[in-house]
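Progress narrative, work stream C.
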Amino acid sequence: MNLYEHTIVARQDTSPAQIKSLTEKYSKIIEKNDGKIVQKEEWGLLNLAYSIKKNKKGIYMHFKIKGAGNIIAELEKNEAIDKNLLRYMTVKVKKFDLKEKYFQKKDENEKKRV
């Protein structure tokens, strides 16, 4: 089994209901192709480094997937035709970092310590 980290960037004007349906849609594709989602994260609305299709911000979703390579091919085939998505990226990794939450908001107490 291969390990993948898959990130999707949706348009900034996508509603929360549409985001939920996108997440469910791609989760079902992964599970249908005998893959396993180890972790799902919604990073929320973040600034883009450059404008993509006249959007300056995007809603990020991140999946940690365990499975075969055909899962990624099927995912990317479906994502290429989805009008709500701006970009997607898949990276093959050797192991997952499940402890660190890179885009989680920090408490006020933690900000004062730093």
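Work stream C, second folded protein:
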Amino acid sequence: MRTAETYSPAEISAVTGASVRAVYKAMGERLPRGLSVQRDHQHYLTRWGAVCFVIDREMPKDVPVAVRRQLYTTILQRQSSARVQHDRGILSYVVDVKAVADRVDGDLARYRDAMDLIVEDETIQGGAATFRGTRILVHYIADLLAQGADEAELREDYPRLTPAMLAAASVYARAHPRRGRPKAPAWRKGLAAGGTGKQRGA
């Protein structure tokens, strides 16, 4: 993994299952400087920031904030996947950083693979997210899945959809929430994504 990569709170939320609010809370209260960067007034977690966020989620609730921050500072300073230990009086906290880093790297790699299936091209559907090589709107499919649409039937209606695309739709929708009030999808009402008549095999 390229350590220069950064991830928005929404992307980390999509990958880890934590709420966006939980990501921001950890960034503001428990993750030390250096684990995040700011661009255009938006904060992003680095790869090690993502690793420390997952560690923070899995750490027992009673571990003090000061101990957490010291552990994460040590991880940031070492920039390596080693075991980290912090002693505090009679208590000793040990984190298997390598195990968490390997898991996070795998999850982020799968996230990037899913995003590679999606494009935002101004010449297609007005620049809205579509699956690569199609005109099928990603948010539309994500809405249908969220409402309980059957994956097999979706693939029958849209033969170019693959299982990987269906999985990517929900991940993309979580990481890139649509702004404003979403339109109610026209599931089973004869309207296709981006059109006014049902189109099979869009």
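The longest strand covers residues 83-88. No further action is required on this item.
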